[in-house]
Specification:
Shape: elongated
Largest sheet: 6 strands, parallel
Structural class: alpha/beta
Order of helices and strands: HHEHEHEHEEHEHEHEHEHEHEEHHE
CATH class of the largest domain: Alpha Beta
Number of strands: 13
Strand content: 15-25%
Number of domains: 2
Distance between the termini: 49 Å
CATH topology of the largest domain: Rossmann fold
Number of helices: 13
Strand order of the largest sheet: 2-1-3-4-5-11
């Protein structure tokens, strides 16, 4: 069994190396010879993280010779978190015969998938693309989609938070009710924290107002809060949860970079610009003729740790030196 697992790991690493070689070997002249390309970008919502992802995607394509205004045109639409609005946007992209679609988030990408099986779709900020039914596997999607995921294991996220605040007995898991990726993540956190004898309370909100009401009513029951990787958190839920947690002196940590910038104590997150850039390079491979099924969907492995020193001071928490040294950003 061990040899079989090692063999699978070797194949995955080998395949990843091949893909990296392909990334760096796409000649700029080849991109220029393809002709004028039109790409539809479905941003899903208004968030600095989404905007950074889109910029990363464009920069990834630019690195391979697809220059905006020269040989590529972007049509950017934003349904503001509305699934039906996303479907209409994707339908319009298909009608306008775009060459490729870039889709953000799990619900946004599931909407895109429901519309077309022919136009290539590259996704990002999708935490659990296999478990949520976006693709068949990370190695081969089995359909017209491929992309990058913003997944960081729950155990890894909590490992560093526990160093900052080792006193948690009850953690509030704050998320969007019914959103597939955060439901899966909730179960992962429950399993990980059960081994530490920590209770995880499900704070599942239908909208921002519901989130505020639930937290205001129950916040005294929690020692700390976790802000999940979902669209409600990314589009305003983080601000509400952080405001109430700081007001009540409850440490919190976030799944997204924007959450730490807003005042969450800490986050071990995916760098949305970097995974967006990788998605852009996958798009370049597709535009060059490689089917999505022959490109792997990727996860960044490196820790991208962010800490908010100002929030730590407000909560009288001393940030250990080893975390400061590992941090990609320290917000003063």
């Amino acid at each position: 069994m061990k040899k079989r697992q090692q063999g699978k790991m070797f194949l995955r690493i080998s395949f990843a190396v091949i893909i990296i070689v392909l990334y760096v070997s796409i000649p700029v002249s080849h991109a220029q010879n393809i002709g004028k390309i039109t790409i539809g970008i479905a941003q899903w919502g208004s968030s600095p993280d989404y905007e950074r992802s889109v910029q990363g995607f464009k920069d990834g394509l630019k690195d391979t010779g697809f220059i905006e205004g020269k040989n590529v045109e972007y049509i950017i639409k934003n349904p503001e978190g509305d699934f039906d609005g996303q479907v209409k946007i994707i339908e319009a992209f298909v009608k306008n015969k775009v060459d490729l679609i870039y889709s953000l988030t799990t619900p946004g990408t599931l909407a895109a998938k429901s519309v077309t099986k022919n136009v290539p779709i590259v996704f990002s900020i999708v935490t659990y693309p296999v478990e949520a039914g976006v693709i068949d596997s990370l190695d081969s999607s089995g359909n017209n989609l491929v992309g990058t995921r913003n997944y960081v294991p729950a155990a890894r996220q909590y490992f560093f938070f526990e160093k900052l605040f080792p006193h948690t007995k009850t953690l509030a898991f704050v998320h969007h009710r019914g959103e597939p990726n955060s439901v899966i993540q909730f179960n992962e956190f429950k399993e990980v924290l059960a081994k530490r004898k920590i209770s995880v309370v499900d704070v599942a909100a239908i909208d921002l107002e519901d989130m505020r009401k639930q937290l205001e009513s129950n916040i005294e029951q929690f020692d700390s809060l976790y802000l999940a990787c979902d669209t409600l958190i990314q589009t305003g839920g983080d601000k509400i949860a952080i405001e109430l947690s700081k007001k009540n002196k409850k440490p919190n940590f976030s799944c997204i970079e924007g959450g730490v910038a807003e005042g969450a104590l800490y986050g071990n997150v995916a760098d949305v610009y970097t995974i967006g850039k990788i998605s852009g390079k996958k798009a370049a491979l597709i535009l060059g003729g490689t089917p999505p099924t022959r490109i792997i969907s990727e996860t960044l492995r490196e820790d991208y740790i962010l800490v908010n020193k100002k929030t730590a001071e407000e909560l009288n928490i001393v940030i250990p030196q080893d975390i400061l040294e590992k941090a990609a950003k320290v917000i003063e």
